[in-house]
Structures are given as C-alpha cells and as structure tokens.
Amino acid sequence: MTQSLAITDYVDSLAEVETRFDLSHQASPGFFTEWLGDLPALTVAEQQRLDLIKQRYLYHRQYGHLLEGGVNFIVIAPLLELAGFYDAPFRLRSEASVRIAIADRDDTVYQGRIDSLVVQEHLWIVLVEAKRTSFSIDVALPQALAYMSANPAPNRPTFGLVSNGAYSMFIKLDRQRYGFSDDFSLNRQRNELCSVLQILNHLKHLT
User: Domain for residue 23, yes or no?
Assistant: First the structure.
C-alpha cells in the first residue's frame, strides 16, 4: 500500500523534489509517449457528454460561480466517471491534503488545497481546489511527484493527472526520471477534455 508522505507538506518546487527524491526531468519527446499516438477513440455519446461538461464550465465561469473548487465538481467528477474510475477494479483512496497560498501582485493571498486520489498504485489523480479558477496547476506538480515517488514497484512507470478542472497535465515517473505532457485547457476552441479522456482511457489499461 502506498504510504502518505509528510514531506509533501513542504516540497514546493520542482528543484526541491528533484533533490529530495533524486529525480531528473526528461524533456525528450521520446520519454513520455503514452499520451501521444493512437489513443482509444471516443464514442459519440462520450463526446456529447464532454461537450456538455465544457458548456457548463463556460457558462458558470461567465457569471463567476466557480469559487471554492466548484469547477472540480463540474469538470473532474464527471470526467472520472466517464473514465470508469468509480467502478471495479479501480478504488479511489484519498491521501492527505496539502494547503497552499499564493500572493498576487496586489498582495492578496489566495488559498487553495491539493487533494490526491489514488485509483491504482500506478495511477494518481491530483486535484487543485482554489478560490479562483486561475489558480495554477504548477503548484501541484512537486507534490504530485513526491506522492508518486512512493510507488511500491519503482521498476514500473507511474502516471498522474494534475488538474484544477480548467487546466490539466499528465505526468510520467519512471526510474527516477519524470516528464510532462502538454497542458490541456478548457479555454481553447477545441474541447480538449476529449484528449484528457482518451489519455486516461489509455493509461488505465497500461497500469
């Protein structure tokens, strides 16, 4: 069973997580290819559901009703349901929350929280809940890598999804090396939730 790491309470940069866990970033496109290439096709029903999710997100954002992590309920929960992570053989297990705060240019401090869910020992979902939808997913990347470093079978790759609902990015950790996918945003014309679901479907079969 994966252990909770108290160290994640103060690992707050990629440089620090690299030092503490002896990790190195791999920028080569050949390292993390699992999010590229021939991904499972989506059904018409899945595409329609994802279009509805994006439509709801854009609607509520227009009126500023995305406080306190509500975007995760609008986007992430139905996305995980579509990916089949609420059903056997997958198990969701919550890990310790990590509180974060970032000061804006006007010295306003925005509070947020990082929650990690394990759907398998080799697949992590890390969510950023914030008081504003622009809270960057970058703040969660070091903690996600710290959690993933507790992989009980380090000879197998571990994958993660870091998301605040509006923005999502995938991580691969393999033998002390890590890499990132492109980021996927609901602010672009194409519905990039389609790519996120395709990658999730692919990774769940790999893990």
Answer: yes
pLDDT, one tens digit per residue, over 42-73 is 999 999 999 999 999 988 888 876 655 677 78
Residue 160 pLDDT more than 80? yes
Secondary structure of the chain in HEC code, one letter for each residue: CCCCCHHHHCCCCHHHHHHHHCCEECCCCCCCCCCCCCCCCCCHHHHHHHHHHHHHHHHHHHCCCCCCCHHHHHHHHHHHHHCCCCCCCCCCEECCCEEEEEECCCCCEEEEEEEEEEEECCEEEEEEEECCCCCCHHHHHHHHHHHHCCCCCCCCCEEEEEECCCEEEEEEEECCEEEEEEEEECCCCCCCHHHHHHHHHHHHHHC
Is 1 among the domain residues?
no
Per-residue pLDDT reduced to its tens digit, 101-148: 445 555 544 444 556 576 677 788 877 654 444 557 887 888 788 878
Domains: count for the chain? 1
Q: Evaluate whether residue 51 is within a structural domain.
A: yes
Q: Where in the sequence is the domain holding 102, given as residue range(s)?
A: 6-206
